[in-house]
Here is the input.
Amino acid sequence: MAANPNRISIREGIVGGIVAPHVRFEGTAVQQPDGTARVAVRNGKQETFCGTWSADLWKKYRSLIDENNVFTLPVENPAGGEDIYGFDRSLAVTLDGHTWRNGGPGGCIHMSSMVQANPVEKKRFDVASTSLEKAMQEAVHRCSAEEYRQVTAP
Here is the structure.
């Protein structure tokens, strides 16, 4: 079986209430064999956008993950029970076969997490996820739903 590709995904609008969450932003960057990354974004209106990061930009944003020690940040336990970072945003990172992912409650069932992020960890999460979201938004142009699916398919 082939290894999972290096991928960074962000979702804003992860916390629900009586109704499901209203996702305002979904972005994915997937590294290609040549070192570049294909980027796909969908906004809250379901409009799709696609683009590319150069190999240097991929390295820059991968470094951002490393600099903020994302793989050492706590995750919710139980998964999906609580947004422990408080930014209504999730980040999923797969690099070199290792995956880190946080989440939040998707509807009316909210459970307290047995793990909480401290202020320093919250800042590291915010810096990484905000910078990555901005970089994804800057790299894209309108594209078809089919092109979007090609980038975001597992």
Summary: The chain is about 25% helix and 25% strand. The two ends are 13 Å apart (CA to CA). The first strand starts at residue 7 and ends at 12.
